[in-house]
Amino acid sequence: MDPVEALREIAFWLEREQAETYRVKAFRTAAGILAAMPPEDVAARAQNGSLRRVKGIGDRTFGVAREAVDGEVPAYLRELRDRAATPLAEGGESIRGQLRGDLHAHSDWSDGGSPLAEMAEAARWLGREYQALTDHSPTLTIARGLDAERLRRQIDAVAEVNASLGGDGFRMLTGIEVDILEDGTLDQTPELLGRLDVVVASVHSKLRSEPGPMTRRMLAAIDDPHTNVLGHCTGRLLRGSRGTRPESQFDAARVFEACAAAGVAVEINSRPERQDPPDRLIQTALDAGCLFSIDTDAHAPGQLDFLQYGAARAEANGVPAERIVTTWPLAKLLEWTSRRR
């Protein structure tokens, strides 16, 4: 087995399990070090033990590399694969089997942890037909949001990734998670938003605003013809390293009626710490006639498998598969995302 691939796959499964960041980083760092070396040097140094003396290679990662070079599937990787045979979430199998892609994920261009090529490869490995890259917009400086020039360069970088994949049926989509500013405008130029395949609009600031201003803010963003998906609409956090955060307050009936009228999908955010919207709001959106998008909001390759959580919640709430845009084939999806522009 290729030692670089073994190390990357271990990192993937650890991310999927929400392991501590330092553990994941050890394997991704080691994979990067070995990927920069000629394969024959990796093999020779693994066999004579000198690979262990390379900075960034620890006992565990050396052991994985040595087993892979010796033609074995490393024992630790076998263990992780066995654990991964158990689904992340109970239920949702029917919807999960119909999902074709994911419209919300981040790379190291903003606050994600991996290059966009690795995110694309992981999505393809998981059997996705498409994966949108939606890094943050410039106002979210803490997340290294992309200004216009960086976004233009990223659009070109996505084209290069797609070209390198050789048209094998998978496509990385250009996109953005654009901030909804206080006045409801979107935090990027209309010209650039019009060039993207997917626009996810989310509130990231002043989440404790009064219901009136927050409702008007969201309605203005939904009315923008570039908006395709309303991201993690309440902004809540239930647990995790960032602590907890209550739901934003807004007139859900008006917001979801506007989404239904404009054909804007309500995101079912699959991150375990978000579970956004809450079940009662999924029901409100369902009654309003909304479309939905089950997305991972992944910030690392292993988190792309979080779709399982969103599928389980959608099925538990009775969301019909035909109203979930991420079950649609790519041509239908892109026709929908471009319809108002």
**Global Rg:** 21 Å
Quickly count the helices. 14
Taken in chain order, the helices and strands follow as HHHHHHEHEHEHEHEHEHEHH
Q: What is the domain total for the residues?
A: 2
Helix content: 40-55%
CATH superfamily grouping of the largest domain: Metal-dependent hydrolases
Q: Would you give an account of this structure?
A:
- With 341 residues, this protein is α/β, with parallel strands linked by helices.
- The protein has 2 domains: 3-84, DNA polymerase, domain 1 (Orthogonal Bundle); 93-337, Alpha-Beta Barrel (TIM Barrel).
- It contains 14 helices and 7 strands.
- The chain has helices at residues 3-16, 21-35, 39-48, 59-69, 75-84, 93-98, 116-125, 148-165, 190-195, 211-223, 252-262, 279-288, 307-316, 330-337; strands spanning 101-102, 130-133, 171-179, 198-202, 229-230, 265-269, 292-295.
- It has a 7-stranded parallel sheet with strand order 1-2-3-4-5-6-7.
- Strand 6, helix 12 (279-288) and strand 7 form a beta-alpha-beta unit.
- The longest helix is centred in the middle third of the chain and has 18 residues, at 148-165.
- The model has no long low-confidence stretch (mean pLDDT 97).
Short description:
It comes from Sinomonas atrocyanea. 45% of the residues lie in helices and 9% in strands.
